[in-house]
Each structure stands twice: as structure tokens, then as C-alpha cells.
């Protein structure tokens, strides 16, 4: 299947000499939710801005649904809706006028029924005659989403869409994203809320210092890089780890009241049986045990740390 977005050897260096993007190669599949993660200044917004035609690339090629973003700008841009980080709108216009105008910018025929459904889905219908300046921050964010979807794009970019918004809006937004994906819309999001990427994304891309350091299916990433840990709550605390247990990947925790054993759950021999046997031999009793797996946030932090090293 041809990717809906294809990026080849994309580079961008700003006038200051800062290399914002370096040799980016990335394909995004039609109908997926792709999460782009990276620390501040990693190049996330620059990459999105180039694809959306806001920033000029330095070199390289970007195709959107087969259309070159430079040679066939109008056709490429018509496929894209963008919800930027900043709330930018005409504060003196009404919600309805703003969304209607955005649709017209792309040469779409008037469709009041579609715009009504859109505003209802975003809980904006009752505010359709209110001026933007009269709305709360959360409602303004909803208007930005409505503007981005007004021309029925097949690709939606969400650049830090839930930064600073309330829990209710965040929940509504992700319900809407799931509905869009079900209708075949491709979603690309950047977020600082890694738990959202963990819950929503089909694939994860990690960018650091302007370079893509990893692209992986979310489940495969969790499977490949995630660690499992077994935590044993001890009957009696230990002042230090006995030398006899040095052969195990053990750490003391909770001021000596717990032992944490790290293992690979995919290996045939995890080492758990041997650990429990050695604990019994040395008279170390435990009263409870529980297992846990690395979160996407832990994996992300480790990847970025390695890339910076």
C-alpha cells in the first residue's frame, strides 16, 4: 500500500545555523494514528510545519497522497487539516462564521449540514453564534479542531492538542479521533502526554536533535524494549544486597524492604525460579510479590538518553 505521507531525505537548517531536521526518512500509512514523540526542540513542530506548507524545506522531498508539497502545493494542502499548538483565530468572528470561512478557503461548496454535525460532535453547536473572544480556552481549542476539519481533510495533524486543556475536553477529543480513524482519516499527533500515545497510537516515531531515531509499531516497541520487573516485599528489611545474590539482576528498594528483579519475559528462562530458590536457601523470606512492565514513557526516556549520549 502506498503511504499517505512519504518523506525522503528531508533537511532543514534555519538562518541561525541550527539544523532543525537532518536526513528525515518517514512513511505514514493511510488510516493509522501515528504519534511523534520527542523532547522540546527535537524538530517535531518543524517537521509538521514543512508537511503542512507553513515552513519551506531545505532539501529533500515530501509527498502527501502522491502530491509533491512544493510542485503540487494546492492538491497536497487540501488533504491536510492542522490543529496547531497556538490558538490563532479572529477573536471578533463567531464560531459559525469562522468554521464556514475555513471551509471556503479550500474551495469547498457550502455544506451547513456537515458543519452542524461537526460543531455538535465538538459540543460547539450551542456556541455557534458566540464570538471567539467570549469562549474559554477549552472551547477555543475545540474551534481550532473544527476549523481543521471544516474542509473534510483525509489527514489530520494534532500538534500538542491537549496541552493545557481540561480532562473532559481531552476525553472528548480522543473519542473524536477514534471516530475519524474509523472513517479512514490518518491522524498524526505530537504530545507530551505519553500515556495518550500509549493508549491511542498504532505506531510510534521518536525524534531527537532533528533525527528520527526509531519508528515502530507500538505493541512491537513495547514488546521489544519493555522490561518486566518482579518486586518482592520482604518479611525483614535488608541493609545491603547479600553477595550470594550478585548473580541476579537485583536492586534493593523501599529502604531495604523490597527486592526488584528485572527480567525479559520473552526468554525461555526468566531466572525467576532460580532467584526464588536462592532466596529460600539464604533464609530471605518475602510476604508479597507483584510484576510490572515498562511504560512507554520509560522506553522513550531511555531512547532519548541513548541518542544524546
TrEMBL record:
Question: For this protein, what is any one GO molecular function term?
Answer: ATP binding
Which Pfam family is one of those matched by this entry? ABC_tran
Q: Name the SUPFAM superfamilies for this protein.
A: P-loop containing nucleoside triphosphate hydrolases
Q: Which UniProt keywords apply?
A: ATP-binding, Nucleotide-binding, Transport
Residues of the ABC transporter domain = 5-234
Transport keyword on record: yes
- This protein's source sits in the domain of life called Bacteria
Q: Which SMART domains match?
A: AAA
**Descriptive protein name:** ABC-2 type transport system ATP-binding protein
Q: Which organism is it from?
A: Pseudomonas borbori
In the record, what lineage is assigned to the organism producing the protein? Bacteria, Pseudomonadati, Pseudomonadota, Gammaproteobacteria, Pseudomonadales
Amino acid at each position: 500500500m502506498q503511504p499517505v505521507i512519504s518523506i525522503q531525505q528531508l533537511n532543514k537548517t534555519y538562518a541561525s545555523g541550527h539544523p532543525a531536521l537532518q536526513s528525515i526518512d518517514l512513511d505514514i500509512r493511510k488510516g493509522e494514528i501515528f504519534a511523534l514523540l520527542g523532547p522540546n526542540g527535537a524538530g517535531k513542530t518543524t517537521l509538521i510545519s514543512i508537511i503542512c506548507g507553513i515552513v519551506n524545506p531545505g532539501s529533500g522531498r515530501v509527498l502527501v497522497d502522491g502530491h509533491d508539497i512544493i510542485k503540487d502545493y494546492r492538491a497536497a494542502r487540501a488533504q491536510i487539516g492542522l490543529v496547531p499548538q497556538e490558538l490563532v483565530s479572529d477573536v471578533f468572528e463567531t464560531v459559525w462564521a469562522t468554521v464556514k470561512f475555513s471551509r471556503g478557503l479550500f474551495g469547498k461548496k457550502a455544506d451547513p449540514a456537515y458543519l452542524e454535525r461537526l460543531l455538535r460532535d465538538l459540543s460547539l453547536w450551542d456556541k455557534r453564534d458566540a464570538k471567539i473572544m467570549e469562549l474559554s480556552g477549552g472551547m477555543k481549542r475545540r474551534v481550532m479542531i473544527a476549523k481543521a476539519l471544516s474542509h473534510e481533510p483525509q489527514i489530520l495533524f494534532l500538534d500538542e492538542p491537549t496541552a493545557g486543556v481540561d480532562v473532559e475536553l481531552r476525553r472528548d477529543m480522543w473519542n473524536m479521533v477514534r471516530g475519524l480513524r474509523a472513517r479512514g482519516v490518518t491522524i498524526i499527533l505530537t504530545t507530551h502526554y505519553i500515556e495518550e500515545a500509549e493508549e491511542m497510537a498504532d505506531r510510534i516515531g521518536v525524534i531527537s536533535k532533528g533525527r528520527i531515531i526509531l519508528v515502530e509499531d507500538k505493541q512491537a516497541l513495547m514488546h521489544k524494549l519493555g522490561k518486566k520487573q518482579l518486586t518482592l516485599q520482604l518479611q525483614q528489611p535488608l541493609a545491603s544486597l547479600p553477595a550470594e545474590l550478585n548473580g541476579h539482576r537485583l536492586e534493593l528498594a523501599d529502604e531495604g524492604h523490597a527486592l526488584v528483579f528485572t527480567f525479559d519475559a520473552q526468554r525461555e528462562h526468566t531466572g525467576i525460579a532460580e532467584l526464588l530458590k536462592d532466596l529460600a536457601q539464604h533464609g530471605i523470606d518475602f510476604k508479597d510479590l507483584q510484576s510490572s512492565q515498562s511504560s512507554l514513557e520509560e522506553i522513550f526516556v531511555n531512547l532519548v538518553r541513548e541518542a544524546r549520549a
